[in-house]
């Protein structure tokens, strides 16, 4: 079944039942606190596991002139229905050890009774019970379809709890909380469905009938209750209820209802007259009541309250996601056959549409005829000259829901005009199949005789506005278009700006050489090594991000000077004492790991910056190994003093440096291949590998690590990526 079918099924089930589910959730939250209010009552003596019936029944007889029933409720309170020594009749909480009454049982809370009726039947009697049962079954289907969607998103059951690439708030927590509370929600749905089916006798419960041969009843020897062998064998905690004999005649007997069976006992001799075990339906019914109501345990009752509360959040976040997808659609100004520019979008949750829409709006403002549609709507476009393909990747490198047919359509439908195309892939480096579908689509278009690439394929990690803008600027220059601010993409998350002062800076001594710059602010808090510093050199939307190394409490950046570079020249021309406005961007997936005895840091060029800060923060002396690559020894000299200082302080265990332009002319991957056994043993031992630098270097390193894992354990590096042992921040 395709992902789109599951998604639409999930949505249809939610839309058709959300009112009933919301009502059941609200009342369920309230009822979850009923066991809590009952448990805090002072009637639990806490010792019924150590008492048997031979100990309890005689002392109860001494404190009551008449007893019709003894019962143990879900709170482990012992109740007796009878007449006390004072002649007053009623139901009492008792101390089972002494047999003394503790208090008379009060009437049930009227508010909880009202909410219970609403929860069970909506005050519509059997009709209401039917709708509530149907709601439980729909919730079960929603949970199942949601689970399948998560598996599709995470690419396999094994990666079910792997890291999730963060989208918007509703999308992210809809998945995160859905995984955490999946089991409680499934239990709520399954038990609710079962109880409803049993209520309508669709699940039959066998009625126990005790057939006693009264002619064979013995009246001697008469034993005391304390001497009944069977009573000595039954713990009070196993009892649901005991019906006492009405009279002293031998024909009247004890009826014991235990957790798994019923027994009748001769009241004179203690003989077991009959014994019947409950059928599965009865046992499942009792278990379902315990699990659905939380009546037996306070902690489980609170878990149910949290689960019911999150069902309300799922309703909210689900509709937010749906509305977001619908809002991302564009109403085209022109018909498809009248347009020169065709924008084709592949998106699973609608986010990619916002990027495509921003380009569409700019084309319209520039007086161009443009048409935006989903990839599955691909057709022959009679006047088209330019294709812009924006697509995410889903599952194991698969197509998004609205792009499943496009490959076949491209091979079957030939365009009437020569087309230049550009493909932009959206994904996350947290997943091993980064932008795989975009690459496949780019290759397929390149093979068509009517198509030629205008640009190489461009990829965007984690919806980065900067990475997308880089492509947009290059593409617009090819078409001699003037792009203004992309409002749907730029500044999606406003950054709080702070004033930073330059406290130290080295000078670049040659073109394209790196330099270090250290910054300080009034409050050197709220950031750590691996976070990003966002600057806006031209005071416009153009943002430049630099990896932070937190050194001596301040920010240290390693910047490569590019002639004409907007950000690097801006920072290079700043002097000590000058100030700039910048913001901290949290980069939580690339912080110094809290787990793992060994950390391997891999970098090239200025990618060493966050590692210098992490080493400075390594106060507990964890084993850190640094592999770094530079063009020459001259390039390495900029960092040599800090590295030596960290080595002497035993914050850095070992460093290996590769020079690509002198000496043996090595790259970082050559050093890793040399130490392959150490690298692999670190992964196996739970160590962490961190990679920072150029994306080309990252690809080479990941390829090497993947080959290493395949050779040793016949599985790829994705296993360690999903377990959080491979952390990457490359560009």
Q: Tally of extended strands?
A: 26
Instruction: Output the radius of gyration.
Output: 36 Å
For the record, the count of structural domains works out to 5
**Strand composition percent:** 15-25%
The largest β sheet comes out as: 8 strands, antiparallel
Examine the coordinates and then state which fold CATH places here, giving the name of the CATH topology of the largest domain: Rossmann fold
Quaternary state reads single chain
Overview of the structural elements:
This protein is α/β, with parallel strands linked by helices and 731 residues long. The chain has 21 helices and 26 strands. An eight-stranded antiparallel sheet has the order 4-3-2-1-5-6-7-8. Strand 19 (549-551) and strand 20 form a beta hairpin. It is elongated, with a radius of gyration of 36 Å.
Task: Give me some keywords for this one.
731 residues, eight-stranded antiparallel β-sheet, 5 domains, Nuclear Transport Factor 2, Chain: A, alpha/beta, 21 helices, seven-stranded antiparallel β-sheet, Rossmann fold
Topology:
Layout: H1 3-32, H2 34-39, H3 53-63, E1 64-72, E2 78-84, E3 89-94, E4 101-104, H4 110-121, H5 125-154, H6 169-180, H7 182-199, H8 229-233, E5 239-243, E6 253-258, E7 261-266, E8 272-277, H9 280-293, H10 298-327, E9 341-346, H11 351-365, E10 370-374, E11 386-392, H12 406-412, E12 419-427, H13 436-446, E13 451-453, E14 458-461, H14 465-478, E15 497-505, E16 514-520, E17 532-535, E18 544-547, E19 549-551, E20 554-560, H15 566-572, E21 579-585, E22 598-604, H16 609-616, E23 623-630, H17 633-648, E24 654-659, H18 668-674, H19 676-684, E25 688-693, H20 695-713, H21 718-722, E26 726-730
Parallel strand pairs: 9-10, 9-11, 11-12, 12-13, 12-14, 22-23, 22-25, 23-24, 25-26
Antiparallel strand pairs: 1-2, 1-5, 2-3, 3-4, 5-6, 6-7, 7-8, 15-16, 15-21, 16-20, 17-18, 17-21, 19-20
